């Protein structure tokens, strides 16, 4: 069985599993990291959104064999450490706005929001209504309005 | 001290059990034991109901809330609040948290009556408790309606016992003591914490106590906005759902399902090959498909895709939307215009509502560990007692051999009333002789999961000289499955309804009874009748959030707009003139004012307004929609865009509000549901199976559909008791969007959702039954 090594939430991890197992199942079923959720397995619902090397990606659609030993995967569990705080400003905004209902999609929503804010800033802008329209993460409880408000507030918190 | 058997007669019930001008006392118990445990007894506390005038519709006299609340009363004394040594209070809520915020609001109610900080109340979900009979069903937006008073009574009894224990300790009369934030305070300022008193306040034997509840005027916690108790867990990924639980040996398990609806497996041709696949441990045939247990879910998906299964056909093989619609049409009852003057004008419309999926984002899932002589289950279950019965039956065990744990759910929307996944997991675990963590693939949900049935709604109204003389509405629906327990509640509780109501619903089936107990037109339109007729029980249906109301209301409000035009009145003015209740009128006035009703809009944009009355409350919604081609055809990658609601204003009178912040959240979510029901979300039946297989073709509301502006107003209510909230936001929203669309396009839409019929996606394969997970995820990083 091939050994798969990558960096997870700041620490190197190694698992014995075939190359073609998707990263989501390596995280959830083999490493017990359950923040990223399953909602479709085909990169549509975005409930598993996490970061690879600081950018948003969906581990349900990436083979573990495609990760290199220097690739840094960050899940919701590791997000606060990226800013050296107990909570990331986006999580603070989420709590302040009382965004979650059932909460199932929220780790993915927050990871997507952080990446989106960084992306628009790389493009030299602040987040706009049409940027918010492009967020693909499904919230079946329908708390979309509070998500929009929290993304804008969290962006302010990100400085 | 008296034993519960020799209890004194309770005081005469008054019409206002929450207190108010004439406060009444309630009975309950301090349960015998070593620490303080208190319970309410509302078995004799049925409130007197008003006499019945001739014209109101049934829900105005006795609705589904009354029925469910009556059903829960006889067992209210089995629900107890415990005070712990550390000064906290514990309560195992016999309802399920699925995102509606009831653990938070319940903690607020307990904290209020106990005088304890809210964060010192620990609310957990009770496992299946058969002795609760009808008092452990989460549905009908009834959780807080039915538990509010019993929980308050139990809390007040606990507070009373703490005060008495403190009085003994401090050497004062109880009257000289007061409580504040979890401590008892004596006249000289001396204090004793609830934790110190918990054991002292315990009673060796069960005692009957009567208490007065706090005057609502003194509430300091109830009615104040409060964030959810589980928000931090949710946003840090620490909130555990069923699939996140670790149960020893419970490996990932999935099923290969039939290519047509409810088909069954005959045999697996390549079992040996499947067992040799990486990670695969076991396979087993059960009635719903071929199960595979593996090291990871990804390996289950690979195994399912490789399975060569011989299938038996399903009960709807060959059927499609058109054949089912034709069947409904045949079952439609004739409209019978009541006797109206010859010159009256008749307005008549017929609407069709397609099948819709009630699936949550968390797919159907359950963990089952079935042994030789016992079984333990973990799942999100809204009716755990029935799940326990069904699982025991499926396993050939007695009910007490099956332990059923209730886990917080990742959404429900009616989906988790049924225990489909839990029963399936138990069967698979038994067949394999191993613990399993069973998950449905997303593709299984719209294709084989519970749906809102297809419905037609016909309306005939008559108008003469500016007056609406009659309004008849006849819904004809594919059968809604009520085998989740609500049906049984009706059978055993309908006798509690006023005699007149009993006569009106006597002889009706479950569905018709629930329809009759929930549907209320809310307008003075002369002779009003709303009826349901059903046909065809071959589908996996269920009571999707707000059950019958969104469809019924969409049809009714579109006709109301037509009637307004008929008599030459503005839609708002017409509604205000005909609204039956002040609650509705106030809600209408609020949205009209805050949402700028009547403001000028460009061609291709319009406002729509609608109401709904249910769950002891009233709602109104005003939306603005943009149907201009540049908006409808806006491009977002792989997105169904279409008409855009650009603004929504919502008002709700939900009776006494425990947590306004949670109530607003429910209205916001209900709005998202209503928007999807009217514009985008449905499943297409073609040749015996549903085409939709995931969120990329089942179009639930997404960010690109949501109005950039949504305002919710919680109205001050005259009511001293809470109404229902979880489903209250859907119907008026769906209807307002439909009315706005009709006004913006100048055409009356008659099929919902409006985009149904054009299949714009390539259906995913039926064999294999699940799609392959992509491997190109790194191309889409951002």
UniProtKB/TrEMBL annotation, chain A:
Keywords: Oxidoreductase. Residues 7-54 form the 2Fe-2S ferredoxin-type domain. Its EC number is 1.3.99.16. One of its GO terms (molecular function) is isoquinoline 1-oxidoreductase activity. This is Isoquinoline 1-oxidoreductase alpha subunit. PANTHER family: OXIDOREDUCTASE WITH IRON-SULFUR SUBUNIT (PTHR45331:SF2), OXIDOREDUCTASE, IRON-SULPHUR BINDING SUBUNIT-RELATED-RELATED (PTHR45331). It is an enzyme of class 1 (oxidoreductase). Pfam families: Fer2 (PF00111), Fer2_2 (PF01799). Residues 75-151 form the [2Fe-2S]-binding domain. It comes from Nocardioides salarius. CDD domains: fer2 (cd00207).
From TrEMBL, chain B:
Gene3D superfamilies: Aldehyde oxidase/xanthine dehydrogenase, a/b hammerhead, Aldehyde oxidase/xanthine dehydrogenase, molybdopterin binding domain. This is Isoquinoline 1-oxidoreductase beta subunit. Residues 1-21 are annotated as: Disordered. It holds the Pfam family MoCoBD_2. It comes from the Bacteria. It is an enzyme of class 1 (oxidoreductase). Keywords: Oxidoreductase. Residues 7-16 have a biased composition (Pro residues). Residues 236-315 form the Aldehyde oxidase/xanthine dehydrogenase a/b hammerhead domain. One of its GO terms (molecular function) is isoquinoline 1-oxidoreductase activity. InterPro entries: Ald_Oxase/Xan_DH_a/b, Ald_Oxase/Xan_DH_a/b_sf, AldOxase/xan_DH_MoCoBD1, AldOxase/xan_DH_MoCoBD2, AldOxase/xan_DH_Mopterin-bd_sf, N-heterocyclic_Hydroxylase, OxRdtase_Mopterin-bd_su_IorB, TAT_signal. SUPFAM superfamilies: CO dehydrogenase molybdoprotein N-domain-like (SSF54665), Molybdenum cofactor-binding domain (SSF56003). Its EC number is 1.3.99.16.
